[in-house]
Amino acid sequence: MPFIPALPPPLTEALLLGVLLAIGALAGAAAQRFRLPAVFGYVLAGFAVGPLMLDFPVRPILTEARVIVDVAVGLVLFELGRRLDLQWLRRDASLWVAALAESALTFVGIAGALIAFGFPWIHSAVAAAIGVSTSPAVVWLVTNDERAQGQVTDRCLNLVAVNTLIGFMLATMLVAAVHLEYQAGWITILLHPMYVLLGSLAVGVTMGVLLPYVAAMLSRRPESHFAIIVAAVLIAVGLAIALKLSVFLALIATGATVRNVPRRFALLEFDLGGGARALYIVLFVVTGAQATWPALQAAGWAALIYVLVRALCKWVGVMLSTPLSPLPWRQNACLGLTLMPMSGMALLLMYDISERYPAFGEELAAVLLAAIVIFDLLGPLVLKFALKRAGDLDR
């Protein structure tokens, strides 16, 4: 009968997306039963089923659902940008010293280690720029799930905002060197990174300036402001994609502008809600699922060195600010540990570069993937431990 489909039915991206979401949600709930961060369960679920998914279209999910992922990432980056308090950075020298020191040490340390391993300098620099950023999603999920409050939590969120912004800007500017590596035209080499950087910031600042005035026309209710924030994120994502700009830079600039530009109106706080969490469950599970044993073996010692160097540089960079910090030594040490989670957005940045230059960093992608999985598994555990030791958790 022609109307009966072939059995077994073909595996579609939608079906795989639903299966991954269900597996991740169950694993996250199981992790929380053992007092572990839910993020640990999401990644572990993907890693556990990875060897079974070699023939499944895992990576196309990120391609097919890229706009949806960009919106979910955009909401977190917007909220992260709103935590970037420039007045606090001006008042407290230890905060910007910590931010600049840990970002610079991480970039130089990772790049130097990878060059020593024989990677080309441009590949090493791009990987180092990606490693500068701490995962906003992991920090958001853990601090919200654990209801973390205190000086270490607030400083962590500000440092994550700064190093995420620095990491994205470095990665954007290094695209010029990638163009040069592949002998693109001089106009492309010189103007493309500046166009992406300045254009993304311009979109973000414009949206950030306009958003509170639009929100002031609505009722003073959180759901009304949440709706207009989602609309602004969608518009910013759409503009960034249409203009071939950086979605990530545009959204974090939007949030930072909302927080730091003086005005009479203020946006109400909001909860990102279950919709954004569902998308992040899928993203974390997909990250773990891509890390098959062959991929991890291909990364080899380079991935382990990447992880160790990044972790050490983050912690030492924060500790350099201890003489200036109002926090005691112990809390500052905990603050350094909170920056361990590495951004899974590194995969998206690598895919963006490989779309233009498919041969770029194939071996490097294996190292980054292995490092991201390690940090996604260990990072939430270290983050929760650090917040608990710092006294920012009630339980």
Q: What does this molecule look like?
A:
This protein has 395 residues and is an all-alpha fold. The chain has one domain (65-390): Na+/H+ antiporter like fold (Up-down Bundle). The chain has 17 helices and no strands. Helix 8 runs antiparallel to helix 9. The longest helix is centred in the middle third of the chain and has 31 residues, at 151-181. The chain starts with 12 loop residues before the first helix and ends in a 5-residue tail after the last helix.
What tags apply to this protein structure?
mainly alpha, 395 residues, 76% helix, Na+/H+ antiporter like fold
Task: Write the topology of this structure.
Elements: H1 13-33, H2 38-49, H3 59-64, H4 66-82, H5 86-91, H6 93-116, H7 121-132, H8 136-145, H9 151-181, H10 186-216, H11 222-242, H12 247-260, H13 273-290, H14 293-319, H15 329-337, H16 345-356, H17 362-390
Helix pairs in contact: 1-2, 1-13, 2-13, 2-17, 4-11, 4-12, 4-13, 6-7, 6-9, 6-14, 7-9, 8-9, 8-17, 9-10, 9-12, 9-15, 10-11, 10-12, 13-17, 14-15, 14-17, 15-17
What is the CATH class?
Answer: Mainly Alpha
Number of domains: 1
Treating each run of at least 4 consecutive H or I residues as one helix, how many helices? Answer: 17
Shape: globular
Taking the sheet with the most strands, its summary is: none
Round the mean pLDDT to the nearest integer and report it: 82
Residue stretches low in confidence (pLDDT < 50, at least 5 long) are none
